[in-house]
Amino acid sequence: MTDTLEYWTQRAAELKPEGRAFINGDYQPAHSGETFESRSPIDNRLLANVAACDSADADIAVRHARAAFNDGRWSQLPPAKRKTIMLRFVDLIKQHGDELALLETLDMGKPISDARHVDIPATRRSLQWSAEAIDKLYDEVAPTGPGELGLVTREAVGVVAAIVPWNFPLIMASWKIGPALAMGNSVILKPSEKSPLSALRLAALAKEAGIPDGVFNVLPGFGHTVGKALALHMDVDTLVFTGSTAIAKQLMIYAGESNMKRVWTEAGGKSPNVVFADAPDLSAAAKAAAEGICFNMGEVCTAGSRLLVEASIADDFMAEVVRAVQDWKPGNPLDPATNVGAIVDETQLKRVQGYIDTGKTQGARLSTGGNRADTVDGGFFMEPTVFEDVTRDMTIFKEEIFGPVLSVVRFTDEAEALAIANDTIYGLAAAVWTSNLSRAHRFARGLRAGSVWVNQWDGGDMTAPFGGYKQSGNGRDKSLHAFDKYSEIKATWIKL
Q: What is the pTM of this model?
């Protein structure tokens, strides 16, 4: 029954999402009483009236988070006890997985099959991995002479504010709150106003798991109100963010204007997917190119939005790419057979349409797609789109679209391919397809990107760090490197 549109439509009709903020262990309205509407991009139905938190709510949440940190109810627990509670949290997410998946689908439009089989499992894996690492992070003893003892210890930083985006609401949250909580910090999560519902449900599961009151708080609201308040707050020690480069820059300014809080950002991307004629499987490369721009409606920071193809194979290869893209069809996200859901809202749909119009105006050749899809009445759906004959001066080559729009550029040799790939202000991810081992290593070294995939798109797991070069941000999520963002490193020198 879970594999039918009828089943998920019925569950959606029965669902009553929580819209209040979660502060100090309880749901409560915004201090002002203000709310905003959360509407589904599937059909524009009203899902919930959500608390519109502002600076007053930020002050309250930070005060409780600081009190929780200072009294040690979480920060001073033995690591193994924190691990036990976090693993219980993971189990509860598994038990409520379908409910959380449905909230993700209704709130931001992703296919229910992706929400169930990608987002929720990835969220669990992330939190479990961070939990399991808690009691395996060792401190250091410095090499000293016999009369001294040098200790290097890692300590929780204090109060962490995490601002996360709407495209993968729970996955992005888990990448932040996992290591932050594991280290013993208090956390204030600010979900996107476009997709706050799953984070608000997550808060109750955290409390049920045994995470103490005040340690995990969720403040829904807008970036220019509660997000800005957290970024400027004098008692927030660390701010972590995933989202656009423009907002990342502004948050760094706010940190400088306040208490010089640490700011760690994962920002925009315009990732190159480079296919050489000697790729080991051109058919697999074509399918991966399609998936790299169509998955999650192209609303992915690492979307393979720039496809670079060696000229000698371009005609035949692009015919296969276009066929593969046409297999990705917009459908009702509540239908488990759907592989392309709804664009998150009308604003984003118009943004994507604007880029498509610009591509046509600037002379790019439209190979497939380019139109709004009338999939569900009142919903926001876009056909996956491929532009060929794209040049490096075109807007669709340079700017992050955050939609299912692929820009294709041809190259003649390795040097030109590398120059085109690196011709961007971003540096989040990249891929190269080749059977030449030396070229694979050489090209991977030359790419200015935080993640490089060889003969695949989107590789890696929780053991690999994730983050960007250049204006794609700083710091790293995932892996043990993520713990550095949520830690202070202390040197203690003892004369014996």
A: 0.97
